[in-house]
Amino acid sequence: MKKCPQCGFENQPHNQFCKQCGAKLTADEDQPMTREAAKEKSSKRKRKVIYLVIAIILILILVLFGIAQATGKHSSKSPASTSPKTEKRASSVVKKAPATTATSSTAASASSGRQTAIQIMPDVNTKNLTTQQVNKWVYANIMADWNKNNTDEPPLTPADQDAFIFNQSTDDQGCVEIQVQENHQSAFMKSIHAYPESTPTIGWYRINAQGYLQQGTPGSDNWNTIAQNYQEP
Question: What is the pTM for the complete model shown?
């Protein structure tokens, strides 16, 4: 109903003039409703804009996430490094052999059917050995130990003594100390693909005051007797 602003008579909505007093009816009475409708319409428009912005942000996030995933998969499938092969063996491990008091002229170390002949010479004075004899004695034990514990590698033979470097010195007690290093320039070490640029130390030996061959740590009392009689490969 349209209420007349002059007399207050309620007219039909389609009336342009008041039937009571003839005053012209205006649309002012409808303005509050029109303002509310306008506000509602504006609010809906704002909400649509907000929803649209949120949707765009979500789409961008999904796109970026997809790109990141694709990049990660591509990186994981990159070709393997083609850097040159490094050292197959950096150092051999020479395990301590048990002490022996054998007096026979020949001993054999066997592992997986491999025999290593070692000549035991009980008559040799181990307190008065030459440099070559010291090196041979140490090498005989290294060769036997290698062939026993490295069955997946070629066996050492008496001719392969140059696969190791023997550095002799005298300690404070007058004992001969021998530092043993792998010689990666030797034919044997090349055959097992040892890294050519290194000479790792694989053990320390000494001949004590009693003339026994021992293995241990320089500057300490941690020495174990591995042979009492002179041996040669």
Answer: 0.54
